[in-house]
Amino acid sequence: MRADLLALGAIVLWASLATLATLLSEIPPLLLTGTGLVIGSVISLPLSGFKLSAWKIPMKTLAVGVYGLFGYHLMLFVALQSAPAVEANLVNYLWPLLIVVLAPLFTKSLTLGLRHIVAAISGFAGAALAITSASQIGGSLGFETGYLFALAAAVIWATYSLMTTKLPAFPTSAIGAFGLVAGLLAIGAHFLLEQPAAISGTDWLLLALLGLGPLGASFYFWDAALKIGDPRRIGLLAFLTPLLSTVLLLIVSGKPLSWQLAIATALIVGGAVLGSRTSSVANSY
Description:
This protein is an all-alpha fold and 285 residues long. Helices cover 74% and strands 0% of the residues.
């Protein structure tokens, strides 16, 4: 029960990620990514007893962590700023399905069966329906480009999740090192590549919620849940995330739930659940 509650805590926080990012859409994506991750990294300090030595991990582990946290969130934030948010968010949630589809590339003992193929068709059909259901072009890049960023986010998180299964075990507090390094890199890139942005008091409040919640506490809740609970059960709970995230985005944006979006959500979530039933890989976001 405790593991389920920890996992649900992470899921609820992750469900708010797209909504908070959309409310902060005026902030350049590199700055948004960097600030959120740096704020989130602070949470690990009390977990480690304020000892930075707990962040000591192999460079390969750190590189994989930075790739996942920096790459995924940057791609997602760009997608949410350049495509209709609800539809782009659904494309992003192909990542649980991609974990199943790509698992054989990382673990030779795993193979794709008919169920996985059906699940993949279902998920990608849902993504296609979500894209075609958009009635307007969003953002200056055009919605086609935005959806490509959303797909890139899904690929990055799926491959990151699979890469972590090949790494030596690391303490939960080390996630703070991932976030801090990734965040500082993103902020540095912001000053080099993006126009300066003014951050209002309201924006700072939302940034604090973003960093402390979906880019902070959620990681530690999830890691703790996996350490004490059944990863298969926890993995299935994770499929609530795209559903909750979509519902929250619809509420905040005031956009009605069309039948196309409802079917797209069902296809993506259903495909991920179907594929996971025969996969031994536990997803991690």
